[in-house]
Design brief:
homodimer; Rossmann fold
């Protein structure tokens, strides 16, 4: 395996995370780089979804991925195989990324020439939702095996996400997952959230997701 | 549905969480109450596993459950149907429980006469691992759909757990989950961890788990 660059990001000393997030967004806007913050529980399929997304978009867009993890770089190696530029961010045990940590990542990564950068946040439905990272939009993955009741239990995460990908729909027959209830609960938290059922493994539903991404990137560059 | 008692637990002002955890354990030892801290990702099956466990043990042991959640009391209502004494702890957005929060729960709950109390921690593989709650032992659930690589990515959680229940083994045929690799990675983090494959839905493997619990409770009461 090639050596993946790993950087240790430190928690920001800035008190005002929101102000720093706005400043980072402004900087990204000037560079024409669209940053998407992707969140989920552990094991919901963030890395597989990103691999499939890069595969679908790499001919049209220059894509970068910042892999945030407490430890290990297994995901970064997986992503690299799909041809995107990758950096691994280690959070030193931290359960989330704030705007300062994200900016350290962006600066080290070097995003010149990239159209779309994914920030794969730490697998966690609680803490990452509390910090604006400076991304243009937030997306999350809820996988079928986790159950349709998650918006009831993790309200903030569903409130801050613009898109909810419902992943692993290939195993719907084996789980008691009610898609209608899921949509009802997600919209209870955020009436404007887009819900896109996908199967990252087979590619089902990915086109709707990449269409949304392409439209977002185009609008950001205007 | 019956009304479940809900209390809001506040983060401890004690600086020394470990000292408070030891004091709580001592108090529980005097009362002959065994407290188990149960952790996992969102949607791995904590509540279903507890329901199945209560069903199997309720004739032999008096069981209580403290359900910690950021919001909602859906799990507490599920558990109550299985005949255990239940209290809902709301963490006010906090991503974990510390010893002080657990003690507030224990004091409000009233554990006199109970043999075994489960603390169902907030669904999160990061923060709960950092705080000794005062429980006698820690257990966690890793579900098959999450993947066998989780001990690589969430090292601390697997290091602090005495038992790892590998849940949802009924869906093994539909996921790329390697049980041998899982065991190898868990033991890399904690060579002494017991690994028990279960299916909370069908009851498979539950007896080995309840045997472990019965032996633990008996030893604690000696």
């Amino acid at each position: 395996m090639d050596k993946i660059r790993i950087i240790e990001v430190k928690q920001s000393i800035f008190e005002n995370n929101d102000r720093q997030a706005d400043a980072l967004r402004k900087k990204l806007k000037e560079k024409g780089v669209y940053l998407l913050n992707l969140m989920s529980s552990p094991g919901s399929g963030k890395t597989t979804t990103l691999s499939r997304t890069i595969e679908a978009l790499s001919k049209e867009l220059n894509i970068g991925v910042m892999e945030a993890d407490i430890d290990s770089d297994v995901d970064a190696h997986t992503i690299e195989k799909f041809g995107a530029k990758v950096i691994q961010l280690h959070t030193g045990g931290m359960c989330h990324l704030d705007a300062g940590m994200t900016e350290q990542g962006i600066d080290e990564f070097g995003v010149e020439g990239l159209d779309l950068v994914f920030l794969e946040n730490v697998g966690n439905l609680v803490c990452p939702a509390e910090f604006d990272t400076g991304a243009v939009k937030n997306a999350m993955i809820l996988s079928v095996p986790e159950g349709h009741d998650k918006p009831l239990k993790y309200p903030l995460m569903f409130s801050v996400c613009d898109v909810v990908l419902v992943n692993k729909i290939d195993v719907l027959p084996y789980f008691d997952f009610d898609m209608e209830k899921c949509e009802e609960y997600v919209h209870m938290r955020n009436p404007k959230a887009q819900i896109i059922p996908i199967c990252a493994k087979t590619g089902e539903g990915i086109e709707k997701w990449t269409d949304w991404l392409k439209a977002e990137v185009a609008a950001w560059k205007e």
